[in-house]
């Protein structure tokens, strides 16, 4: 039975005495201790320590309102409560079967000392691995509708930590990570060089996005992010390079304001996850625990799956999204005759369906199937897609029937070209179309500048739009994979049909740019994936000579590492991204992609260090089988796997997909070995990982 314990903390003395004396309020759990105080001038502050080491020194709290009567001036304390909670819940899908939710909550009641005397609550939850806090606005006569001009939340760090960061761009998070000291943060050159759409105002050159991963000189790992970002803009962080103080920067709207709220209401949670062990950061469920339970009761229609698709071939230039282009001809009757490179044609889609059916892959995604791709990008227009009109060479009915006959599910693609208003006008029509033709999932896209004009991908309006899409999809029993959205904050718990997002620099950048450095995938679990699953599109087997017109381009991993990514980069919607013909040349290695699940009962972080290596073991949902992925950066290393997580007394058949001795992402990326051996709980495996390499294992019970 879930248990909830409630205790009241009685405050001695008057509120002014509290403010003057600085007598603190505290909350703690295990090694984490929170201290909340008012300064002599009435400014609320908080501080966090881990094993008595400072994580955040006394830091400011507060918000500024456009009307000038925000919570940015002197405040007085009117009371507080503490409660202890220890319960558990079961996710619809995820990395573990059950999640413990244990915390001590401190609620601090504050009030403006002068008219209009508005009231503010700050709610803190202290977990064994960190702290979450948010601002809450009680129902009150003096506060109904209000506009936030700025959030004043600070994170005063005690040192010049090593940081893994991307620039504070309002419209994209598809950047490579920079690793530097906080005192060296300068994103201006990166933003200028980026292929991202320019924002209305140049981003703060000292702003970074969350999740922000930090490591202190004395060995503390600290992750700063947010949870349950609903009806509010994304939070970025301004870095004071001299003091190492981070200050919240909210993404603005078209007229420069930050958020429109009403009381009663609340902000998202600001989150701090901390440990002296890097694996603990990856194992944390703090962000999920701060999100609300599922918004709908019936979830049995939500089915995590793997899929292949008509996608990578467009990325590498083999085919096009557009049915018509400059190489096409126009007949006397006004009919376009395509030059034959349109990827989403019926015959080609059937080829992918056949491959999926043959190899037990549940779904097939098709991009470029619908009218509008000739004029979809770069013109900041109201929208060119209606999401229901196919090109002439894409027979929806025939393809749907063919897939159904093969036991394969089709996955819809809805690109909006940034025109969110146009998509909202067509939402119900689009989802009814999916229901009619049996599409259980949709991949959405928001490439380009946002319409309404002047809004940003990470602003309040778009944050609400993504939720509206998830809610509409749920009404139609459709699962969602969003591309180019705001970065996740754990909302997959509340909307479990929102299975995945891109919201980061994925594998696709290896197709049309200099690609992702070998360390990139060792950083992502500590940054982008802290908020939720990522559609990284792993599984590229042809690692060189795949890009039309760019023979020098290559993926910065070995083939074995591409297999390992199915374990280390979690997603319940997981793509096998390469072309069927490239998989056909390595069917022995493709067997791991066939076998690896996308839903889990247990997860163990065996080894991890951001920017260097990650090794993760996961137990298949409803099974005793385990799967392991180990990856490294550009350096050769040996991964040590102690199989103590296996049940004692039971033997397992281990199939190892490893780098060949001469493998190297630069010179010999497709060299791999497959071997088998018998293992048990006492076994220790030492796997040689090539530069940019990895290893993948399946552990299946014998007998």
What does this structure look like?
This protein has 703 residues and is α+β, with helices and mostly antiparallel strands. The protein has a domain at 3-289: Distorted Sandwich (Beta-galactosidase, Chain A, domain 5), CATH 2.70.98.10. The chain is 17% helix and 33% strand. Strands 1, 7, 8, 9, 10, 13, 14, 16, 17, 21 and 22 form an 11-stranded antiparallel sheet that branches. A hairpin with a 2-residue loop joins strand 4 and strand 5 (53-60). Helix 6 packs parallel to helix 7 and helix 8 packs parallel to helix 9 (460-475). The radius of gyration is 26 Å and the shape is globular.
User: What portion of residues belong to β-strands?
Assistant: 25-35%
- Strand tally: 39
CATH class of the domain at 3-289: Mainly Beta
Major sheet size, sense and barrel closure: 11 strands, antiparallel
Mind telling me which CATH architecture of the domain at 3-289 this is?
Answer: Distorted Sandwich
Q: The CATH topology of the domain at 3-289, please? A: Beta-galactosidase, Chain A, domain 5
The first-to-last residue Cα distance is 36 Å
**Class inferred from helices and paired strands:** alpha+beta
Which range best describes the helical content: under 10%, 10-25%, 25-40%, 40-55%, 55-70% or over 70%? 10-25%
Mean pLDDT: 93
Low-confidence stretches: 1-21, 195-201
| Rg over C-alpha atoms, rounded to the nearest angstrom | 26 Å
- How many helices does DSSP assign? 14
Shape: globular
Indicate the topology.
Blueprint (H helix, E strand, L loop, with lengths): L2 E5 L7 H7 L3 E5 L2 E7 L5 E7 L2 E8 L2 E3 L10 E14 L9 E13 L7 E9 L2 E8 L7 E7 L2 E3 L5 E4 L12 E4 L6 H6 L13 E3 L2 E4 L5 E7 L7 E6 L4 E6 L8 E4 L2 E2 L2 E7 L2 H6 L2 H4 L15 E6 L1 H4 L13 E2 L5 E2 L8 H14 L3 E4 L29 H11 L2 E7 L4 H18 L3 E5 L14 H16 L3 E4 L15 E4 L7 H4 L7 H4 L35 H10 L4 E3 L4 H5 L2 H9 L4 E10 L3 E8 L5 E7 L4 E6 L9 E8 L12 E8 L4 E6 L4 E8 L2
Parallel strand pairs: 23-26, 23-31, 26-27, 27-28, 28-29, 29-30
Antiparallel strand pairs: 1-7, 2-3, 3-4, 4-5, 6-11, 7-8, 8-9, 9-10, 10-21, 10-22, 11-20, 12-19, 13-14, 13-16, 15-18, 16-17, 17-22, 18-19, 24-25, 32-33, 33-34, 34-39, 35-38, 36-37, 36-39
């Amino acid at each position: 039975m879930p248990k909830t314990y409630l205790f009241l903390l009685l405050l001695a003395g008057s509120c002014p005495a509290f403010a003057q004396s600085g007598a603190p309020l505290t909350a703690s759990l295990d090694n984490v201790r929170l201290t909340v105080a008012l300064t002599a001038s009435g400014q609320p502050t908080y501080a966090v320590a881990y094993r008595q080491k400072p994580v955040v020194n006394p830091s400011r709290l507060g918000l500024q309102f456009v009307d000038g009567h925000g919570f940015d001036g002197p405040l007085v304390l009117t009371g507080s409560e503490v409660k202890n909670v220890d319960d558990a819940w079961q996710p619809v899908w995820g990395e573990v079967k059950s999640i413990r939710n244990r915390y001590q909550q401190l609620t601090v009641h504050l009030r403006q000392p002068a008219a209009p005397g508005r009231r503010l609550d700050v709610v803190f939850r202290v977990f064994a691995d960190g702290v979450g806090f948010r601002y809450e606005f009680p129902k009150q006569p003096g506060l109904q509708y209000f506009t936030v001009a700025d959030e004043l939340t600070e994170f005063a760090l005690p040192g010049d930590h090593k940081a893994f960061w991307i620039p504070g761009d309002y419209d994209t998070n598809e950047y490579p990570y920079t690793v530097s000291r906080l005192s060296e943060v300068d994103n201006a050159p990166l933003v200028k060089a980026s292929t991202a759409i320019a924002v209305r105002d140049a981003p703060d050159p000292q702003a970074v996005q969350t999740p922000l991963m930090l490591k202190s000189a004395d060995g503390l790992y600290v992750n700063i992010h947010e949870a349950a970002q609903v009806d509010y803009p994304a939070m970025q962080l301004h870095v004071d390079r001299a003091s190492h103080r981070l200050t919240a920067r909210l993404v603005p709207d078209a007229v420069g304001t930050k958020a429109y709220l009403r009381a009663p209401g609340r902000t998202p949670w600001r989150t701090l996850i901390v440990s002296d062990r890097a694996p603990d950061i990856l194992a944390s469920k703090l962000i999920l625990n701060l999100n609300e339970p599922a918004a709908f009761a019936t979830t049995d229609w939500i089915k995590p799956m793997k899929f292949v698709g008509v996608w990578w071939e467009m990325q590498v230039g083999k085919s096009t999204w557009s049915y018509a282009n400059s190489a096409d001809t126009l007949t006397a009757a006004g009919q376009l005759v395509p030059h034959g490179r349109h990827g989403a044609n019926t015959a080609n889609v059937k080829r992918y369906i056949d491959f999926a059916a043959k190899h037990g892959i549940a779904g097939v995604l098709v991009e470029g199937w619908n009218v509008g791709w000739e004029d979809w990008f770069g013109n900041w227009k109201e929208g060119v897609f209606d999401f229901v009109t196919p090109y002439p060479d894409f027979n929806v009915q025939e393809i749907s029937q063919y897939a159904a006959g093969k036991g394969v599910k089709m996955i819809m693609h809805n690109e909006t070209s940034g025109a969110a208003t146009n998509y909202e006008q067509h939402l119900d029509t689009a989802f009814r179309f999916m229901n009619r033709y049996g599409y259980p999932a949709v991949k959405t896209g928001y490439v380009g500048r946002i319409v309404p004009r002047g809004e940003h991908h990470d602003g309040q309006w778009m944050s609400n739009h993504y939720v509206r899409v998830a809610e509409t999809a749920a009404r139609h029993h459709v699962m969602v994979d969003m591309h180019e959205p705001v970065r996740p904050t754990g909302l997959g718990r509340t909307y479990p049909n929102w299975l995945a997002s891109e919201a980061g620099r994925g594998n696709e950048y290896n197709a049309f740019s200099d690609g992702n450095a070998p360390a990139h995938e060792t950083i992502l679990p500590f940054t982008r994936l802290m908020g939720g699953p990522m559609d990284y599109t792993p599984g590229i087997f042809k690692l060189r000579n795949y890009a039309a017109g760019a023979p020098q381009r290559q993926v910065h991993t070995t083939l074995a590492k591409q297999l390992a990514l199915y374990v280390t980069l979690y997603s319940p919607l997981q793509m096998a991204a390469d072309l069927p013909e490239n998989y056909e040349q390595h069917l022995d290695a493709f067997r791991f992609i066939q076998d690896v699940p996308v839903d889990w009962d247990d997860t163990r972080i065996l080894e991890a260090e951001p920017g260097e290596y990650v090794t993760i073991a996961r137990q298949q949902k409803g099974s005793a089988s385990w799967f392991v992925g180990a990856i490294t950066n550009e350096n050769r290393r040996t991964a040590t796997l102690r199989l103590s997580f296996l049940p004692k007394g039971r033997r397992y058949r281990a199939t190892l997909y490893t780098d060949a001795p001469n493998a190297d992402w630069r010179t010999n990326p497709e060299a791999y070995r497959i071997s088998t051996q018998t293992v048990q709980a006492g076994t220790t495996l030492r796997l040689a990982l090539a530069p940019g390499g990895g290893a993948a294992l399946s552990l299946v019970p014998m007998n």
